[in-house]
């Protein structure tokens, strides 16, 4: 059967639930912020000095995916995770008011935790929120300790300072290192505080680390001060075959004495490296020193699950909203379509249900995670999801998987606004200097299709070129692969009702 036919038929049928027992599983989703897969020790691309023993132990007990493509930046990543849809399919979500202000209509944009509540689950969210001033307590969440950045723009930069937190709707100013606070409250919840012990639960734990200004806890500051940090091959360019916007996102420069230091062209929110002229190696060390607090939290959570007798019935997922380029392609930011800036770690673990100590070469997007949660919980979705249930790969990571992974960047636009911009103002399809795009990863290859007129496509063989240094789109030897990926991308866009993105395809070279 032709591959595209297989994709179409698979999209028409919802997979059977993974959870067949009477005891439905708990789901613990641990969600870091701006975390590159390179900062996690069990990933072979990490620096050799990176130590994340608890996250690594989670991988040893489960499946480590090649990675996840959950979103281009904080807001769309979370919106996709809460709806099971790509940004182009999320209606009413929009930026409004002082950054990071955002709003949505819950009737047009329902979040699936409300459906889990209606089906007997207790739902909880702890930590960072970046998806509308309405954080959903009482509708989507039974229990919530939320740092609502859109609601309090004046406190939106407090990633490592006093935070305005709402405990089940009651606001207070909270001292302490936020990652440690979130861990404590999450551990209490796992142990039974603030929930009905007779019900299964879903907990979304949203750490704010490693997001800029990337300030480690006092106990971890200097942990990697002597670590050696090699420079990426294309840290200062050139970038042959890549789009011209990389010249405008170059975030590093070489000083007269040969040092490489940060410029102002990095992350626009929270990043202090450019203003301080931080040296490249020092910045990489600093970012990595933010991870141990999260790693310790993972260890405490796993201990709590074990001691409370819930380990065997809890699906644990570790991931991050997106990656973060650490000098690759000259960047110090997220948003761009490259592995360094978009791909985040992804690990699943559950004794007896998830293959232990295995690696899956596939990648997944946010809608895939949501489809998997529904399958595990045995809950039927009441809206169309864009994702595919990953359960077969959790049972057998080497199983045949004929599905591509779609991801995209549409800036701060969602739903019909994406279509409007591409139809009426296509030259405005750019955000944080990066043109909008759709991309697909399939069989170890990636095709990037920019949606702003005149920006050429990019094609990479991730197997032989994991750093994405060589764009093969004009190579005769890749012509057949390019045609196949173009057809695959179009099929995925049509499957998810993204007709405007299909029409916006850049002409072939």
Q: Descriptors for this entry?
A:
Alkaline Phosphatase, subunit A, globular, 509 residues, Arylsulfatase, C-terminal domain, 15 helices, ten-stranded mixed beta sheet, 20 strands, alpha/beta
Quick description:
The chain is α/β, with parallel strands linked by helices.
Q: Can you give a write-up of this model?
A:
The chain has a ten-stranded mixed beta sheet with strand order 8-7-6-5-9-1-12-13-2-14, sandwiched between helices. A four-stranded antiparallel beta sheet has the order 15-18-19-20, covered by helices on one side. A two-stranded antiparallel ribbon has the order 3-4. Strand 19 (445-450) and strand 20 form a beta hairpin. It has two domains: 24-216 and 287-395, Alkaline Phosphatase, subunit A; 405-503, Arylsulfatase, C-terminal domain, CATH 3.30.1120.10. Helix 5 (178-191) runs parallel beside helix 9 (291-307). 26% of the residues lie in helices and 19% in strands. The chain contains 15 helices and 20 strands. The radius of gyration is 21 Å and the shape is globular. Residues 1-21 have low confidence and may be disordered. The longest helix has 17 residues, at 291-307. The protein has helices at residues 3-12, 53-60, 74-83, 113-118, 178-191, 246-249, 273-276, 280-288, 291-307, 339-342, 366-377, 391-395, 416-424, 479-495, 499-503; strands at 26-32, 63-69, 94-95, 102-103, 122-129, 143-148, 163-167, 170-174, 201-206, 252-254, 260-262, 314-320, 346-349, 358-365, 405-409, 430-431, 434-435, 437-442, 445-450, 458-461. By secondary structure, it is α/β, with parallel strands linked by helices.
């Amino acid at each position: 059967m032709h591959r595209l036919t297989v994709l179409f038929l698979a999209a028409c049928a919802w997979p059977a639930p993974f959870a067949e027992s009477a005891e439905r599983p708990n789901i613990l989703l641990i969600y870091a912020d701006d975390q590159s897969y390179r900062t996690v020790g069990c990933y072979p691309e990490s620096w050799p000095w990176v130590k994340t023993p608890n996250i690594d132990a989670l991988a040893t007990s489960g499946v480590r995916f090649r990675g996840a493509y959950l979103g281009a930046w904080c807001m769309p990543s979370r919106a996709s995770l809460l709806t099971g849809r790509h940004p182009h399919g999320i209606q009413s979500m929009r930026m409004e008011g002082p950054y990071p202000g955002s709003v949505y209509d819950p009737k047009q944009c329902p979040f699936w935790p409300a459906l889990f509540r209606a089906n007997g689950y207790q739902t909880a969210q702890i930590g960072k929120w970046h998806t509308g001033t309405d954080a959903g307590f009482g509708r989507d969440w039974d229990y919530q300790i939320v740092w609502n950045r859109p609601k309090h723009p004046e406190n939106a930069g407090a990633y490592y300072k006093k935070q305005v937190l709402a405990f089940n709707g009651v606001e207070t100013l909270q001292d302490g290192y936020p990652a440690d606070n979130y861990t404590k409250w999450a551990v209490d919840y796992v142990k039974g505080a603030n929930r009905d012990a007779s019900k299964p639960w879903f907990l979304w734990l949203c750490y704010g680390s490693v997001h800029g200004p990337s300030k480690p806890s006092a106990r971890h500051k200097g942990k990697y001060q002597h670590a050696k940090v090699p420079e990426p091959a294309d840290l200062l360019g050139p970038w042959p075959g890549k789009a011209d916007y990389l010249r405008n996102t170059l975030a590093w420069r070489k000083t007269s004495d040969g040092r490489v230091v940060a410029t102002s062209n990095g992350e626009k929110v929270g990043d202090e490296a450019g203003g301080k002229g931080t040296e490249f190696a020092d910045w990489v060390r600093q970012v990595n020193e933010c991870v141990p607090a999260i790693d310790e939290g993972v260890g405490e959570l796993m201990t709590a699950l074990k001691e409370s007798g819930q380990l065997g019935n809890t699906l644990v997922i570790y991931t991050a909203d997106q990656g973060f380029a650490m000098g690759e392609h000259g960047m110090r930011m997220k948003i761009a379509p490259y592995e360094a800036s978009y791909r985040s770690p992804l690990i699943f673990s559950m004794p007896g249900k998830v293959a232990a100590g295995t690696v899956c070469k596939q990648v997944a997007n946010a809608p895939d995670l949501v489809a998997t949660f529904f399958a595990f919980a045995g809950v039927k979705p009441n809206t169309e999801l864009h994702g595919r249930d990953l359960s077969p790969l959790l049972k057998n990571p080497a199983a045949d998987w004929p599905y591509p992974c779609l991801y995209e960047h549409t800036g701060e636009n969602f739903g019909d606004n994406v279509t409007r911009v591409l139809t009426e103002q296509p030259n405005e399809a750019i955000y944080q200097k990066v043109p909008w795009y759709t991309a697909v990863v399939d069989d170890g290859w990636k095709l990037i299709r920019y949606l702003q007129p005149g920006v050429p496509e990019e094609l990479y063989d991730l197997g032989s070129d994991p750093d994405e240094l060589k764009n093969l789109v004009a190579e005769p030897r890749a012509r057949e692969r390019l045609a196949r990926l173009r057809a695959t991308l179009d099929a995925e866009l049509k499957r998810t009702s993204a007709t405007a993105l299909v029409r916006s395809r850049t002409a072939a070279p």
